[in-house]
Each structure stands twice: as C-alpha cells, then as structure tokens.
Amino acid sequence: MKYTIQFRIWHWLNAIVILGLLATFFLRKTFLSWRTNSEILMTKLSEVGIEITAEQAKMLAKAVRAGMWEWHIIFGYALAFLVLYRIYLFFADTSEKVNFDSLDMHHKAVKISYYLFYAILLFMTVSGLGIHFYQELGMSKDFAGSIKDIHENVAYVVAVFVPLHIAGTFVADATDEKGLVSTMIHGKKID
Ligand code: HEM
Ligand code: HEM
Questions:
Q1: Is the residue at 191 inside a domain?
Q2: Is residue 106 a part of any domain in this protein?
Q3: pLDDT, mean over the chain
Q4: Which residues constitute the domain of residue 169?
Q5: Domains: count for the chain
Q6: I need a labelling partner for 29 at 20 to 30 A (CA). Which of 15, 21, 22, 177 fits?
Q7: 186: confidence class by pLDDT, cuts 50, 70, 90
Q8: In this structure, is residue 37 part of a structural domain?
Q9: Does 120 sit in the ligand 1 pocket, CB within 6 Å?
Q10: If DSSP states are collapsed to H, E and C, what string results for the chain?
C-alpha cells in the first residue's frame, strides 16, 4: 500500500480544513472586510438620512463579519487535531516509506517542500491557538498583536502552497506520474 487509508483520510480532511481556513482569510480581506463594509454602511445609511460615526460603522461591520470568523476558529481547532494526528502517523503509519536518497532532485525538492509545509502548519496552529487564548496564557495585547502579524504573514505562504501543490500534482499526473492523484484516493502504487 503506497498510502494507508488513515493517511488518505488525513490528506483529504486536511485539504478541506485548509481550504476552509483560506476561505475565511479571503472573506475577511474582501467581501466581509470591515474597512470596506463600514464605508458602505456609512454611505448607504446617510443616503436614507441616518448619520453614524466611523466608530459606529466599524462596530456594525465587525458584527457582520463575526459569524463568518467563528469558522476560522472552528477550522483552527480541526487543524490542531489534524496536525497532532499527522505527527502520530509520522511514527505509526505503515504507508510505504520511500528512501530519500533514492529520489531524483525534483522529488527530493517536493519532499522537502512537504516538510517545510508541515513546519508551517505547526507554526500556524501554535500561533493561532496562542492568539485565540492570549488572555488565558497571560500575554499582553501588544504581544498577541505581534504574533498575529506573523500568523497573518505566514498565512500567505499557505495560500501560495495550495495552488502550487494542486497544479503540481495535476501536471505530474498528466505527464510522467499518471495516476498520482488517484493514488491519494485508492492508495495503491502506480504501475
Ligand atoms: C488545501 C489543499 C491541500 C493540502 C494542504 C495538501 C497537502 C498535502 C501534503 C502535505 C502532502 C504530502 C503528504 C506527505 O507525503 O507527507 C500531499 C500529498 C499529495 N496531495 Fe495534497 N493537499 C491538498 C490538496 C490536494 C488536491 C486537491 C489534490 C488532488 C488534485 C492533492 C493531491 C495530492 C497527491 C497526489 C499527493 C501525493 C504527492 C506525492 O506523492 O508527492 N492534494 N498533499
Ligand atoms: C493554515 C492555517 C491558517 C491560516 C492560513 C490562517 C490565516 C489567518 C489570517 C490571514 C489572519 C489575520 C486576519 C486579519 O487580521 O486580517 C488570522 C488571524 C487569526 N487566526 Fe488564523 N490562520 C490559520 C490557522 C489558525 C489556527 C489553527 C487558529 C487556532 C484557533 C487560528 C486562529 C486565529 C486567530 C485567533 C486570529 C486573530 C483574529 C483576530 O484578530 O480577530 N488560525 N489567521
């Protein structure tokens, strides 16, 4: 078995959760951005004769965004469990382990990129839980704010990895690794 059932289920659940986290990130920066929406609220309300301050508009726009952002935390907890489960699989999984030295340059680079990605996921989980529980952890608001800035910048790396990874597996599957994507579904080795 190239990939055990546990590994494949982990891969696809992880894909869903990360796409979910990226979706909340995207929405927060676009359609549900409080900056954009507070301006819309102020303009539209003033058109119907209601004047509100920028501060009040900000509060309203953030309230509109709140329900969506709860999903960031829900997916965030899910990611924390998936990262722990991936660590467990690292030691316990019986998926065929490839010998790193036997790989060509390209596959070595791919494998290294996965491990860098795992390090990034671990960082996103620890920093995300850190900012979520900053008060309980006794952090100052400023310190939590600086962790948030790093969390946010590293999020862009995740946003770049995902389309590259999907495009990469598509290209490999269409060229010299036919059936690669389906191995992540049925688990068997390709030819
Ligand atoms: C958010 C989405 C995704 C994430 C975060 C993700 C993450 C990963 C990671 C970390 C690995 C390495 C597993 C390991 O060897 O330790 C992997 C492998 C793989 N993924 Fe994804 N994946 C995503 C979506 C997809 C999609 C949509 C496809 C199919 C089109 C796909 C196909 C594959 C395949 C075929 C492999 C094995 C590639 C190989 O042997 O080098 N992934 N994925
Ligand atoms: C792939 C994983 C993740 C990505 C791409 C991601 C992305 C982001 C981004 C871009 C922000 C900044 C939003 C902004 O201020 O405009 C953010 C904030 C945040 N993230 Fe994540 N995140 C991830 C994982 C997590 C995890 C695992 C948690 C844990 C619960 C988490 C909790 C938070 C919290 C609490 C904030 C601060 C929200 C606020 O200031 O209102 N994140 N995340």
A1: no
A2: yes
A3: 97
A4: 5-186
A5: 1
A6: 15
A7: very high
A8: yes
A9: no
A10: CCCCHHHHHHHHHHHHHHHHHHHHHHHHHCCCCHHHHHHHHHHHHHHCCCCCCHHHHHHHHHHHHHHHHHHHHHHHHHHHHHHHHHHHHHHHCCCCCCCHHHCCHHHHHHHHHHHHHHHHHHHHHHHHHHHHCCCCCCCCHHHHHHHHHHHHHHHHHHHHHHHHHHHHHHHHHHCCCCCHHHHHHHCCCCC
Ligand 2 contacts CB of residue 147 (under 6 A): no
Residue 165 lies in a domain: yes
- What digits encode the pLDDT tens for the residues 37-90? 999 999 999 999 999 999 999 999 999 999 999 999 999 999 999 999 999 999
Over residues 178-183, mean pLDDT: 96
Neighbouring residues of 35: CB distance < 8 A, sequence distance ≥ 6: 61
151: which 2 tokens? 């969390």
- Rounded to an integer, the average pLDDT of 1-24 is 97
Distance (Å) from CA 120 to ligand 1 centroid: 15
Q: Whose CA is nearest to atom 25 of ligand 1?
A: 166
Pick left, alpha or beta for residue 138 (phi over 0 → left; psi -120 to 50 → alpha; otherwise beta).
left
For residue 153, give the CATH number of its domain: 1.20.950
> Which amino acid makes up residue 12?
W
